[in-house]
Design a protein that fits this description.
This protein is of the alpha+beta class and 436 residues long. Helix content is 52%, strand content 18%. A hairpin with a 4-residue loop joins strand 3 and strand 4. It starts with a helix and ends in a 7-residue tail after the last strand.
């Protein structure tokens, strides 16, 4: 047994070394990509002040390559070669991404010399794409001398460990390996299926969670289908009336406006669905931003002021914010959706008061209020207290779900105080967030 532990210790050490190497290379790649993006943005600022593209050569070096590509993929400038010798770059991955989303990146590995070429491309205001690249050793090149020795030792230890440990672990793992099959059964017996009694609560919990997730998935799919069908049906109906010639010129203009309105609502709905999906899988979201709630609240107030003014609603921001660490984009979304809801479900000529007290955000309105029986469900996806009013105001039913996700990411507590026909007060306390 001691010998087995010794071998397992060596194996763990080797695996740790290998894992650290992979992690180091990953961090190295992320650092190279980030530096490359920063340098490209700085270079893009200098580009506007150049008399000609030849001036880009002054920023290039042996390890820093600069390329300028036109809208059709033609190379206008290349720091490492003559442009006439260059192939069309339109189909390069990073160039395609830049034309589609404004920026793009790619990494290409050279089997011949064992290096990785990192590329970053940025779409400029004149329609051209500025691309920069650097060359770096790959992880295989970095560990080329030691990889063979490590591989041999790894294989030897694996063989010894497998032979010794297989018999010791087979009986222990056998009941655990039966869990997937047991989950497929409607009923099972602890004695007949040879299950550890300690595993029964786990199996039952997995079953419960699986059934619950399936129900939630089906409900979400049904809700999405319904919510997408409503605006699409309206758009189709109005478009059919216009296309058939049955609508007068005045009606056609009105129908076109309604089509635009429903299209905007549809785009907003799709955007919120995508954002919720991103929040669902963003367990490793960066929490390194300095959060100033008062500053973010002012941005949201300015963003929504035009919509509020159309109904005579006044938005005010007061209080003092204590800086804490979090994700600024998510906190902005949280404040925006709370304020947007306070405007949508307010009465005409009402008020929306945003109060910041240290690390606590309070959004209060003078709107329709939320009945007590609905307060525990308002953060569910697509749940609406008043479905007709929500659709009339352009709401998607997902705003408060986004708020809940962001609050959970920041370990914040949500409190809802509301009186029907008087107003609602949403309190978000970031007391558990890291203080600066």
């Amino acid at each position: 047994m001691i010998l087995l532990l010794f071998y397992m210790g060596i194996l763990a050490a080797l695996l740790s070394m290998f894992a650290c190497s992979i992690l180091y290379h990953r961090l190295f790649r992320e650092e190279v990509e980030q530096n490359l993006a920063d340098e490209c943005r700085v270079l893009a600022h200098s580009y506007d002040n150049l008399d000609s593209v030849i001036g880009l050569q002054t920023f290039a070096s042996e390890t820093f390559r600069i390329t300028l590509i036109s809208e059709n993929g033609t190379v206008l400038f290349e720091s490492d070669a003559h442009v006439l010798e260059m192939q069309n770059h339109f189909n390069r991955p990073e160039i395609q991404q830049a034309f589609q989303s404004g920026e793009g990146k790619d990494t290409r590995y050279s089997d011949t010399i064992g290096t990785e070429d990192y590329y970053y491309a940025l779409l400029l205001e004149d329609g051209n794409v500025l691309r920069v690249s650097v060359e770096a050793n790959s992880i295989f090149a970095l560990f080329e001398k030691s990889i063979f020795f490590l591989l041999v030792m790894f294989l030897v230890i694996i063989m010894i460990s497998v032979i010794v440990s297989t018999r010791l672990t087979e009986n222990l793992l056998s009941p655990i390996r039966k869990i997937p099959k047991l989950l497929q059964k409607q009923e099972f017996s602890q004695e007949e299926d040879e299950i550890y009694p300690e595993l029964l609560p786990l199996i039952n919990e997995i079953r419960y969670q699986r059934d619950k997730q399936e129900d939630m998935r089906q409900e979400f799919t049904a809700n999405v289908s319904h919510e997408l069908k409503t605006p699409l049906t309206s758009i189709s109906g109005y478009a059919e009336l216009i296309a058939s010639g049955m609508a007068t010129k005045e009606d056609a203009q009105e129908f076109a406006g309604k089509i635009h309105q429903e299209s905007t609502r549809l785009l907003t709905l799709i955007s919120d669905i995508i954002r919720l999906s991103e929040l669902d899988r963003s367990g490793d979201v960066s929490m390194q931003d300095e959060i100033n709630l008062h500053e973010i609240a002012e941005e949201c107030r300015m963003q929504l002021s035009h919509t509020a003014q159309q109904r005579g609603i006044q938005i005010s921001v007061s209080g003092r914010s204590e800086i804490f660490i979090g994700n600024r984009l998510e906190i902005y979304e949280l404040v925006y959706h709370l304020t947007d809801n306070a405007v949508r479900y307010n009465r005409d000529n009402g008020n929306v008061d945003i109060l910041i007290s240290d690390r606590k955000l309070i959004v209060a309105d003078t709107g329709i209020g939320i009945p007590e029986e609905h307060r525990t469900r308002i953060f569910e996806r697509f749940y609406r207290v008043d479905k007709s009013r929500s659709r009339a105001t352009g709401g998607t039913g997902l705003g408060l779900s986004i708020v809940r996700h962001v609050a959970e990411h920041h370990h914040a507590q949500i409190t809802v105080n509301s009186t029907v026909h008087v107003g609602t007060e949403m309190i978000i306390a970031f007391e558990n967030s890291h203080k600066l």
